[in-house]
Amino acid sequence: MSRIVRLILLCATVLTTLPATAADSSRPNVLFIAIDDLRPQLRCYGEEQMVSPNIDRLAASGVLFEQAYCMVPTCGASRASLMTGLRPSPKRFVNYLTRASQDAPGITTMNTHFRENGYETVSLGKVFHHKDDNADGWSQPAWRPKTSIAYHVPENQMLHRQRQRQEGRRGRGPAFEAADSPDNDYADGRVAAKAVEELKRLSEEDEPFLMAVGFFKPHLPFVCPKKYWDLYDRDAIRIPETYHRPQGAPDIALHTSGELRSYAGIPPKGPVSDETAISLIHGYYACVSFTDAQIGRVLDTLDELGLADNTIVVLWGDHGWNLGEHKLWCKHSCFETSMHIPLIIRAPGIKGGRRTDAMTETIDLYPTLCELAGLPLPDHLQGESLVARLRDPDANWEDTAVGRYKTGDTIRTDRYRFSEYLGQKGKRLGRMLYDHQADPGEDTNIVRQTDSAELVKSLTEQLHAIKGRD
Ligand SMILES: [Ca+2]
């Protein structure tokens, strides 16, 4: 045997006996990107005015879900439902402070399941609402940037401190700010930097990883570097056409935008000025572009490290947001604008650059990631794997999406959204029916129209058959 042949054989032996790293493991990694309060306000969702090149790039190489919905339109509850794979009910996953470990004791959460199946699991930024929720499900303590004060303009910092002295923790500074500060001065800039650092470390590890990265914007307050505000022409920003109470909507379906009221400059009740409304919309857009840029840093690193081909990427928003539609700000309602979320999945072996209108619920993500990673499905899961939809996005999937908020349960079919509000002992407090074919803005509640009766009966039955129970 020649020396060259012996050398080649030796090299081949060394290569086959080396442990696989995260870059070439037979099992795919998972990059799980959670974005706080991001509605599908992105160019890849047809919002032409938006500057979202990085998420658009992910959509161009993945599958975009046109009709994805959260389970509960508030932070903690939405995240707990997704991470447990369980539907919310009147007593489970109720508000923004929900803890999965408290509301669903003994349930193996998604991160724990991956960890128990040999994955290194990492949590950066806002994943669960509480940093220490399901702490054992992470291979190392969940990491968040040290948060001091959200604002960078000195007057805003002073105002924030002053209001905290007057009103305690609920006291806040302005609802928006454009500052001449670098990205890494903001929490999400530091989340991106940490994610880049962690990807470099994880790429050298033997085990595959599940890295959850949670960005805090575009959640209020809309604070980000001025350069992202400058991407939008303020004069071109319009208040939505549905900036009024929907015709025939019951009182219980609406709210007073309470979350926004705690910010300086927002009146304690009644409408904000049109100028403030435009600033809020402008600030939201700016924060979407700021977050998009941070996501770009993470996706670039995935490419640079050679991880992209062996990493499943999921990007989702934890619920929608009302940017003035129905005269509402924030989330907390059963309207489409509160429930509808962006969802993009890119996975090895799945053809990208496609989109599907299959109706999707966020409880579908846990089983989807298990199937894509070849992990067993825990018995408790209530969602359905989306892998068949990823493989055949154009098929006629006859799905529905069911969610809830406080007393309201809501179902979305391909054409309608029907919501029912129930009080104690099942007393009906209100109902809404919107026909998205005729009224995509949910401007006229047609639940009382006589020709809606059969449809309402059928949707009520569907909703009752699916909705979560205590
Ligand atoms: Ca949220």
User: Helix- and strand-based class?
Assistant: alpha/beta
Q: Report the sheet-strand fraction.
A: 15-25%
Residue-averaged pLDDT: 94
- Tally of distinct domains: 1
Shape: globular
CATH superfamily: Alkaline Phosphatase, subunit A
Small molecules (ligands, ions, cofactors) in the structure? calcium ion
CATH architecture type = 3-Layer(aba) Sandwich
Output the CATH topology: Alkaline Phosphatase, subunit A
Total strands: the figure is 18
Task: Explain what you see.
This protein has 470 residues and is of the alpha/beta class. It has a single domain (24-399), classed as Alkaline Phosphatase, subunit A, CATH 3.40.720. Helix content is 31%, strand content 17%. The chain has 14 helices and 18 strands. It has helices at residues 3-17, 53-61, 75-84, 100-103, 110-116, 154-167, 187-202, 226-229, 258-261, 274-304, 336-339, 365-373, 387-391, 453-466; strands spanning 29-35, 63-65, 68-69, 120-125, 176-179, 209-215, 222-225, 311-317, 322-323, 329-330, 340-341, 343-346, 354-356, 360-361, 401-405, 408-412, 416-422, 428-435. The strands form five sheets. It has a seven-stranded mixed β-sheet with strand order 4-6-1-8-12-2-13, with helices on both faces. A four-stranded antiparallel β-sheet has the order 15-16-17-18, with helices on one face. Strands 11-3-14 form a three-stranded mixed β-sheet. α2 crosses α10 and α7 (187-202) packs parallel to α10. The longest helix is centred in the middle third of the chain and has 31 residues, at 274-304. The chain is globular, with a radius of gyration of 23 Å. The chain starts with a helix and ends with a helix. Bound molecules: calcium ion. The site of calcium ion has 6 residues, from loops.
